[in-house]
Design brief:
Helix 3 packs across helix 4 and helix 3 crosses helix 5. By secondary structure, the chain is an all-alpha fold. It is 83% helix and 0% strand. The protein has one domain.
């Protein structure tokens, strides 16, 4: 992912509008690119500051809010990956069981 692509994803990230695939690429880039992280931090600080004016997140450290949001996003990506692995494994296992049942029935004829 390029910096330009990452910068275009900042607001969709803040608004929780990224797909899992986009989120994973965005997080990977932002965590390894200091300038994109700073850009995200600026936008997130503005967003969190406005929310604070509305009575949300009062008294919270803006930097900690961003760190928490990034951590939650990373956990979401990991959780979805784990779910996909488990889902694929269960599908393969179900197909194998179905194959065994069919073969057993054919041999019993």
């Amino acid at each position: 992912m390029t910096c330009k692509e990452a910068e275009q994803m900042i607001m969709p990230y803040i608004n929780d509008e990224l797909t899992d695939k986009e989120l994973e690429a965005f997080l990977e880039h932002v965590c390894s690119c200091g300038s994109c992280y700073e850009e995200l931090e600026i936008y997130y600080t503005i967003y969190a500051g406005l929310a604070q004016l509305d009575g949300e997140n009062e008294g919270q450290d803006m930097r900690n809010l961003l760190q928490e949001a990034l951590y939650i996003s990373e956990q979401r990506v990991r959780g979805r990956k784990l779910f996909n692995v488990f889902y694929t494994f269960s599908q393969v296992l179900a197909m194998a069981a179905l194959t065994v049942i069919i073969v057993t029935e054919i041999l019993n004829l």
